[in-house]
Amino acid sequence: MAPSELTPSAAPPVARLIEAFHRLPGIGPKSAQRLTYHLIRMPQEEAEELASAILSVKERVVLCDTCANLAESAECTICGDLQRDQTQICIVEEPLDVVAIERARVYSGLYHVLHGVISPVNGIGPNDLKLRELLERLRDGTVKEVIVATNPNLEGEATAMYIQQLISPLGVAITRLARGLPSGSDIEYADDSTLAHALESRTEIAGRQDAGTE
Questions:
Q1: How does pLDDT run across 10-37, given as a tens digit for each residue?
Q2: What's the chain look like in SS3?
Q3: 97 and 51 fall within a common domain
């Protein structure tokens, strides 16, 4: 293996691990090197536990059949909790957004994870998201409110508008997270109080089919 620009003098196993870390999102060259040398100094048992945890995630984690959140079986713990409000569904882009909103401890309904947003530049259209599954969940009339919690950026807003147009004929109340989330930010990185305020101050999206016609 030819030496990498990141690891010109490192032993091949060390260089391979540095390169692997560097491929992870948010990990720069120096962070990749620090993580690698930390693992080298780590006791054997801890290194094996870390490796086992990584393999376990790849082998055992699946998508919930209902909401598409990460789960260990066909139903995630949130969908399986009958104490949660079955009349509310909060739509988010990614599983990490579920974690962030749950951390705020002000929402007790259900979720639906899109696994992305509409992004023509990246070749992602509505058919690439979990929208068909969302429509199936709304057909029996149990859900009374859909909270659109896509990120407040260009793609998130476009996706929110598409969802509003898609489900408004069903007569379900559609709300959007309100003030508190700065434009262009990601829900994943919002602090607890900001998310709590946004959830509590959500507003209904205009344009529902039953909102009045000319």
A1: 788 999 999 999 999 999 999 999 999 9
A2: CCCCCCCCCCCHHHHHHHHHHHCCCCCCHHHHHHHHHHHHHCCHHHHHHHHHHHHHHHHHCEECCCCCCEECCCCCCCCCCCCCCCCEEEEECCHHHHHHHHHHCCCCCEEEECCCCCEHHHCECHHHCCHHHHHHHHCCCCCCEEEECCCCCHHHHHHHHHHHHHHHHHCCEEEECCCCCCCCCCHHHCCHHHHHHHHHCCEECCCCHHHCCC
A3: no
Domain of 161 in residue numbering reads as 75-211
Residue 187 belongs to a domain = yes
Percent of the chain with pLDDT over 70: 88
Residue-wise pLDDT for 141-155, tens only, equals: 999 999 999 998 899
Whether 184 and 102 map to the same domain: the answer is yes
pTM score, two decimals? 0.76
